[in-house]
Design brief:
heterodimer, A: 119 residues, alpha/beta, Rossmann fold, 5-stranded parallel sheet, globular, B: 544 residues, alpha+beta, Beta-Lactamase, 5 domains, 6-stranded antiparallel sheet, 13 helices, 22 strands, 41% helix
């Protein structure tokens, strides 16, 4: 596994994560908007997609819905990692319905979070 | 009441004149030009007898009015009718309508309730063999009807009556042509008597009503008897209406009085005639001079006054406080969400930066930046946790609870001299309680103390002393501020009590509730000559 897409509108978070992941040897693409993120994930084949839930244009769940055109539900559960500051029960329930991993912002433990993104 | 006039003209008479046949409800009256009145059902036979002599057409009073021509002298005719009336009066079996009118009037005047009215109806001369008299009242919108009345002329009766049954009975009576009934036909209705009965239905905007009377026998009623009953009870309609209205009103007034009695402000109703028409408990309790806070002239003769008092001030501020609290909650939530993301970005950014090769100066600076980010994050979280209901208990050394509280209150106690003592080695004592609850309580106490001491000349001091006793940690917080005045002590833990113009009056109450939730308590101890002393007691292991 080496190709990762980060969809996150907070540039400082996006770029920091990119740096950290690149340092671990991954190839990282980024997008600040959900729509551009969708284009990228349709055109390229990423091993992992790390997606913020509250984007400026659309929500992270919209991105996943679009990704269904390309990936099976099982692939989505494997590829997507959701990041969110709003860990309400509704959000968790919906994330669970896609069977994808959820990371709460801010991360309690940075290394652990990076592992979860890449394992 | 519908009125139908039938003119019976008497031609062949110079004095001439007519007899009017008046229909009021189901009753007919005959009126002569001389203004004399007699009742048709009673004298119908007589009238028919007379009239039929001249004309065969008038068979029943229900027949639409027609004009009949009579050739006989009118005076003779009326004489004949009224002459016979005098004869009938002497007979025992017949009814005198004058007496009925008078009885009805006196029944109406002397009845102050539906029960009395129902009892008195039996005073009507033609009902002298009737023993029971019942009113079934259904006030519109109420779940059940009620039977009120008297059984066997002695037993007072009152019972709820199913609305469903009421409707069955009401419609049967309304639609019946005979207007004579028998309990056998209503065996499912659970009427409190057996036998034949007479019934009359009334309806108004507010209620439906059935009047029933029975002799408790099984004999059928005579047509005349039924007519008489229907006509006479019809005349009672306005009395029913008036009495029900009165009962409504007195009930409403007594309910209103009960409400106003407990009204949380001193209140008084004055009238021109009586100085104290009504006043509530709070007014009675404190008779010292009060300012009128609100006065309203209710009607010409009445005025309502509300009086100024401490309670009023509290209540008036309620709304204001609630608004502030909810605004604060919203604000904190927004702040938390809006600041968390950029702070997280800063944190990640600085971590990336820290991983570069840096000079010692730069490394120190980046470490300082990270610390500040962490502190900002903690403050935001702690503030938004202040309004949180649930929190997880975790084990930390007691020192951490105190330190977190002091960090949060840092700006408030910048100028304050702090003295923290951990007695009995409590500094590293492990306490298994929700961190944010304890932090919130201590933070609250510290901020309260700091604000109370803000303008004093001597240097403000806060002392925290922790001890351990019987599985409880005891945190005593004292200050050298103005303390709590004895007269305010009773309000200390009351909601919305505050001595600060900007306070919410909720801090201490919330703090005590949190302490109780954790299995402990928060109390005020009046043992200092000056200054305040709060004691927080908490079990080291919270309730599970």
């Amino acid at each position: 596994m080496k190709d990762i897409l980060i969809i996150e509108d907070e540039i400082l978070i996006q770029q920091s994560l990119k740096k950290m992941l690149e340092r671990k040897g991954f190839k990282v693409d980024t997008s600040a908007s959900g729509k551009n993120g969708i284009n990228l994930l349709i055109q390229n084949n990423y091993d992992r997609i790390i997606c913020d839930l509250m984007l400026q244009d659309i929500s992270g769940f919209d991105v996943i819905e679009e990704a269904k055109r390309k990936y099976t539900l099982e692939e989505i559960g494997q590829k997507f990692v959701i990041m969110t500051a709003y860990n309400s029960p509704q959000v968790l329930a919906r994330a669970n319905s896609y069977k994808c991993r959820v990371l709460n912002k801010p991360f309690d433990d940075l290394e652990q979070a990076l592992c979860l993104m890449t394992e | 009441m519908d009125q139908v006039k039938a003119y019976y003209e008497f031609v062949d008479s110079k004095e001439s004149a007519d007899i009017s046949l008046l229909k009021r409800g189901s009753r007919f009256f005959v009126m002569t030009s001389q203004g004399q009145v007699c009742d048709l059902p009673l004298y119908r036979q007589n009238i028919f007898q007379v009239l039929n002599t001249y004309h065969q057409g008038l068979k029943s009073p229900e027949i639409a009015p027609q004009v009949f021509l009579f050739t006989k002298n009118a005076i003779n005719l009326t004489k004949k009718i009224f002459h016979q009336k005098e004869d009938i009066q002497t007979q025992e079996t017949t009814v005198n309508w004058d007496i009925i009118f008078k009885t009805i009037q006196s029944i109406g005047q002397n009845s102050s309730s539906l029960r009395i009215l129902s009892e008195k109806i039996l005073e009507l001369p033609f009902l002298k063999n009737f023993h029971s008299s019942l009113v079934i009242l259904h006030i519109k919108g109420q779940a059940k009807a009620e039977i009120i009345g008297t059984l066997w002329k002695s037993e007072k009766f009152s019972q709820l009556f199913e609305t469903k049954n009421f409707n069955v009975l009401f419609n049967s009576i309304k639609k019946s042509k005979l207007k004579s009934f028998h309990t056998d036909s209503f065996s499912t209705l659970d009427l409190p008597f057996n036998g034949s009965f007479l019934g009359k239905d009334f309806v108004s905007k507010k209620y439906s009503l059935i009047y029933l009377t029975t002799r408790h026998d099984f004999l059928n009623f005579q047509k005349e008897e039924i007519d008489l009953f229907q006509s006479a009870i019809e005349l009672l309609g306005p009395h029913f209406e008036r009495i029900i209205d009165q009962e409504f009103n007195s009930k409403r007034i007594s309910e209103l009085r009960i409400c106003l009695k407990d009204f949380p402000l001193p209140l008084r109703l004055k009238s021109n005639f009586i100085e104290n028409e009504f006043s509530n408990d709070l007014y009675e309790k404190s008779l010292e001079d009060r300012d009128i806070f609100f006065s309203k002239k209710v009607e010409q003769n009445f005025s309502l006054d509300l009086y100024d008092c401490d309670e009023l001030r509290h209540y008036a501020f309620d709304l204001f406080h609630f608004q502030r609290i909810s605004l604060l909650g919203e604000l904190l939530n927004t702040l938390r969400h809006e600041l968390s993301n950029p702070l997280f970005g800063l944190k990640l950014g600085s971590q990336v930066y820290a991983s570069f090769e840096l000079s010692t100066d730069h490394r120190e600076m980046i470490t300082e930046i990270e610390k500040n980010i962490d502190r900002s994050q903690l403050i935001i979280e702690n503030f938004s946790n202040l309004y949180q209901e649930h929190a997880e208990a975790k084990s930390y050394p007691l020192r951490k609870f105190i330190d977190e509280s002091l960090t949060l209150a840092k700006s408030e106690i910048r100028e304050v001299k702090k003295d923290i003592q951990y007695l009995n080695d409590t500094e590293n004592l492990m306490v298994n309680q929700p961190l944010i609850f304890i932090v919130q309580i201590i933070f609250n106490l510290i901020v309260n103390a700091a604000q109370a001491m803000r303008d004093q000349e001597t240097r403000p001091e806060i002392n925290l002393k922790t001890t351990f006793f019987d599985n409880n940690i005891i945190i005593d917080m004292t200050d050298n501020g103005p303390g709590i005045k004895p007269d305010k002590l009773q309000y200390l833990f009351k909601p919305f009590f505050t001595t600060k113009s900007y306070g919410t009056g909720l801090g201490l109450l919330l703090s005590r509730n949190l302490a109780i939730k954790m299995g402990g308590n928060l109390e005020y101890i009046s043992d200092l000559p000056a200054g305040a002393h709060f004691r927080l007691t908490l079990p080291i292991q919270g309730p599970t």
